[in-house]
Amino acid sequence: MNFGVLGSGAREHALQWCLERSDAVETVFAIPGNGGTHSNVPVDLSDMEAIRTVCDRHEIDLLVVGPEGPLAAGIVDAFADHPTRVFGPSRSAARLESSKVWSKRFMQRNGVPTAGFSVVDTLEGWAQFADERGGRAVLKADGLAGGKGVAVCRRPEDIEAEWQRMTALRPPGESFVAEELVEGWELSIHVLTDGLAWSLFPSSQDHKPLLNGDRGPNTGGMGAFSPVSACSEPLLERIVSGVVEPTLHGLATESIRYCGFLYFGLMITSEGPVVLEYNVRLGDPETQVLLPALTSDLAPALFSCLDGTLSSDALSFGTGSTAGVVLASPGYPVSPQTGTRIDGHPVSSEDALIFHAGTRRLGNGWVTSGGRVLTAVGRGSTVEDACMRAYAACDRIRFDGMQLRTDIGRRTAA
């Protein structure tokens, strides 16, 4: 069978790498892919008809959607009458990510623990919400924001400035979610689900801020590691019973069939897990550290999801740990500078895996073409060992202005 992976980031490179290890797969096309993927097929991700044509031309049996944009736009629905099957949730189910307002109200309706919130449309509404909480509040754009739709306010004097900054980045008239600021430590949980059954990935933790010590602006993610030792079995059981099950039950109750990957972005507080956000796809950079730990065949698990026959043990993972370090362009995340030659050894080896994102081929080498350029992934018996291998791979790669955090995997649970 021929597979397609839709998207161009390191997550999609990791998906192609993983699917190619399946006995059921003949070719995995990267649509459109990047400088590190192969069997690339150029296409505009917003052009559904062009994507259908690509699937026809290459006789693609299953198209796995990486990013949230096409899912929110309804690519699964658009392929309902097409011979290619598309893996991911429908447009209706994708509202868990595509609309923060809908998502928060869904959690409220279905007893999923989340921070207190209010929907606001004006500075006055936001200011009142934040003032009542001593200036400590979070402002989230309703729609997809590509990692740039959240402002964390910790001081009363920043309330107006955060509103002005956020509204300048968003379409006119968009609503926002004003949310209570909850404290704790963050955890990423992923499941593969057919809407009723689910299979769990190992826990992981992302590092969002640009700089060491969780300082600087938020990014799409500067690295991740898995598993998280602080995620004990009792905690995981509480997450499953208090978060995963109510979410899937709520979707089923509201007649929304969910098929795909589902990501729970959690804050573990002193009172238990709180959902910060849903993602209706695999996280990035979490995917790059989760898939290398997979010991089972991903392809049949995806088909069992589509057929509604998924079992809880569809996914199995090895022991040990994985860690990924993102190498980013200078100027990222505000205005990344691109077109710089990448020197060194930006390819996978026995010691580490290298997943490409913002790269393009130039002759026999590569140049940067985006903000997050590469993810170096190490595997080891412990998180420390995995990080050591990942950083050793980073040491073999060079490009002007390269940014990376040097403390991936060192965060401790609060």
What do the pLDDT scores average to?
Answer: 96
The residue ranges in which pLDDT falls below 50 over 5 or more consecutive positions are none
Number of contiguous helices: 12
Based on helices, strands and strand pairing, what is the structural class? alpha+beta
Q: What name does CATH use for the topology of the largest domain? A: D-amino Acid Aminotransferase, Chain A, domain 1
| Dominant shape | globular
Strand content: 25-35%
Summarize the amount of helix as a percent range. 25-40%
First-to-last CA distance: 47 Å
Q: Compute the number of strand runs.
A: 23
- Assigned CATH architecture of the largest domain: 2-Layer Sandwich
Which strand order does the major sheet show?
Answer: 11-14-17-22-19
The gyration radius over C-alpha positions equals 21 Å
* Major β-sheet annotation: 5 strands, antiparallel
CATH superfamily of the largest domain, please? ATP-grasp fold, B domain
Number of domains: 4
| Assembly context of the chains | single chain
CATH class of the largest domain: Alpha Beta
